[in-house]
Amino acid sequence: xxxxxxxxxxxxxxxxxxxxxxxxxxxxxxxxxxxxxxxxxxxxxxxxxxxxxxxxxxxxxxxxxxxxxxxxxxxxxxxxxxxxxxxxxxxxxxxxxxxxxxxxxxxxxxxxxxxxxxxxxxxxxxxxxxxxxxxxxxxxxxxxxxxxxxxxxxxxxxxxxxxxxxxxxxxxxxxxxxxxxxxxxxxxxxxxxxxxxxxxxxxxxxxxxxxxxxxxxxxxxxxxxxxxxxxxxxxxxxxxxxxxxxxxxxxxxxxxxxxxxxxxxxxxxxxxxxxxxxxxxxxxxxxxxxxxxxxxxxxxxxxxxxxxxxxxxxxxxxxxxxxxxxxxxxxxxxxxxxxxxxxxxxxxxxxxxxxxxxxxxxxxxxxxxxxxxxxxxxxxxxxxxxxxxxxxxxxxxxxxxxxxxxxxxxxxxxxxxxxxxxxxxxxxxxxxxxxxxxxxxxxxxxxxxxxxxxxxxxxxxxxxxxxxxxxxxxxxxxxxxxxxxxxxxxxxxxxxxxxxxxxxxxxxxxxxxxxxxxxxxxxxxxxxxxxxxxxxxxxxxxxxxxxxxxxxxxxxxxxxxxxxxxxxxxxxxxxxxxxxxxxx
Length: 584
Prior knowledge:
Helix content: 25-40%
């Protein structure tokens, strides 16, 4: 059996950390995003009434709204929400009325540039189409309503005609990857090979070109510098890149393509070992929102877009299917508790697009011409891809829990939950990540592979009162469990110093502190002498901190240092913030 993800549809997050986040999105964030999208004309752009005084659309408005629609699908799958469904159904009404006879739909091109359809590679047409298709697939899976799915299937058929059968577009592959992932989802839903073939077509066209004058931008920026099986380093725009790598991993799994698998493994290792912040943030520069060279990871000017972290987590989740190694789930965990989660405020109303890795207000005043990430979250951005990406990610986070190959169930993340699939019920009872204790029960005999997180130095596993001994294999501890058994996993969580590769200039002479899956940071709100503080070896103490999260107090001169989880910074007003702090 080909390894598969146990879907969020088969899992209920029943309590704890992620249940609280999902309820926050349900009760606060989803409406906050929709209201801002309504106020800015993103929703009304679907009415296609610009000529009659309606809002002027933008090339990426469709994708913003599509991700919000997909979020509603994830929400609705667990609890029907008539008001939100009605909003989605209204948008689908607009799409049905507004689309062209050939199935094409794009609120910008149809109203603002109908003579330029499929002529501008960088204008996000296929990117928007991909997000609309993902929303259609998930809305159908959640509600059984197939109208949007039928509309988008027609659109995909037209895209296949233009790009494959007629080869008549002015470019051969998307400037911004995304449609490839959506086409794989459509294949998984329908079983129709043409959609997998179309995804493979777009992936395989990269780095090849077709006709003189077409695809003129063969650059690292859009991952078009080499054929994909010859790409071994992460290059260019970080979101685009990781969406491509997601599609490559999807195809490697479904087609048994060893060339794609090898490329994905090498690219993943290149990212995490040379181009990733300790928080899981990627894309270090605002210049093109892109990866820089190896070990170029400045903290004060870090870009680290929220969507890029999400894309890395999605890539890591897919790699867990392609290559049996817990390192992929380790990186997914690092992202979801740190570099991604910092994109949302504690109250669920505000967002970061960029995620600062350091804030020094005094230095910023000295260098007014330097571009720094903002210090406080906001309600909306002119390019507002991140807020609905956050909502869809949180509502579907259960997708990260398990991989199943028919014989072994790989437990990749720990969340208070119950899952039912293939005649099996598995329950997790845990307060993770606030502590490291997890109780797992299964309803029938099965082989479990428990991920022992890379951050964990000591752990204990007990099955029905008996301690289990054994060494993890590539990060997994394998257990043959009888139905009704209770497995208790205790992961020792202690504060630890972390050190960067010495080739990272910004972090030389410094250390970062982690506590379990959390990367910690120090804020000026708690540490008035933050910029003069030097950490020392010695006991670090843990207590309950702000927002009910763990806090760590570190021995330091001239005064002790108080640290909170990185994702919770910038929720108490503007102040200095550091992750990497000088170490004696």
